[in-house]
Amino acid sequence: QTSRNALASLLKKMAIDHPYHTICQLLALANGDRVKDKQRSRSSFVVDMDKKLAAENLLKELSSFHGALIRQMKQMVEIYIRLAELETRKEDTNKKISLPREFRSICQLELAKVPVVTATIPVDPNCRYEEGTFPHFSGLVDSITIMNGINAPKVIQCIGSDGNRYRQLAKSGNDDLRQDAVMEQFFSLVNMFLQNHRDTSERRLRIRTYNVGMNAINLHFS
Asked: Which residues, at least 6 apart from 73, have a Cβ–Cβ distance to it below 8 Å?
C-alpha cells in the first residue's frame, strides 16, 4: 500500500507539472474497458480494473489543476475512438471516403488547449508550457483513407493551429502498440547520440521516428 501511494503521488506530481506528457496516458487507462462487444468476449481481453479506477480517481484530483485541459482532451480522445471504431466496407479498402454526416461538426472543432496529439512537445525542466508555443487541435480534414488490415486502420489528417496537416493513423482491435511506443522512445535516444557525435552529425544520420499514442488500451493513433 505504501508503494502504491508513493506511485500515485509521483504520477500526480508529473501530471501537474507536465500535463501534456501524462494526461493522455491516464485517459487511456481510464478507458481500459472501452471495447466493442465482439472483442469483450475474447479471452485476450483482460482489464486491470485497479489501474482503471486509479486513473479515474487521479483525473478527478487533477481537474482542480487542469480542468479545462482534461475536458478538451476527453473530447479529442472521444473523436479518435469514434473514428478508429468507424465501421467500413471491404470495397472501401485503400480508398479515400468522406466522413459520415455525424462527424461533420467535429471537422470544425477547435480545442485550443490540446496540442496536435502526434506532435512532439519537448519536456520543459521549468514546467512552463505556454499556450501558443505548440500547434493545437483545430479540426480534421473531412475525408479519411481506409487502409488494408483486419481492423481497417484509418488515415486521418488533423489540422493544426499552425495551418499544417498532420497525417495520423487510427486503429482499434487486438494490435498492442505499447511495444512500438517503447521502441520509438529507444530510437529517439539513438537519434540523440547520433546528433551529439561529430561524424554522424555531419553526415546527418538519424532514424526516422513517429509518435505512438493510446486513447484506450486497444485504440491507438500514430
From this structure: 23, 24, 27, 111, 113, 114
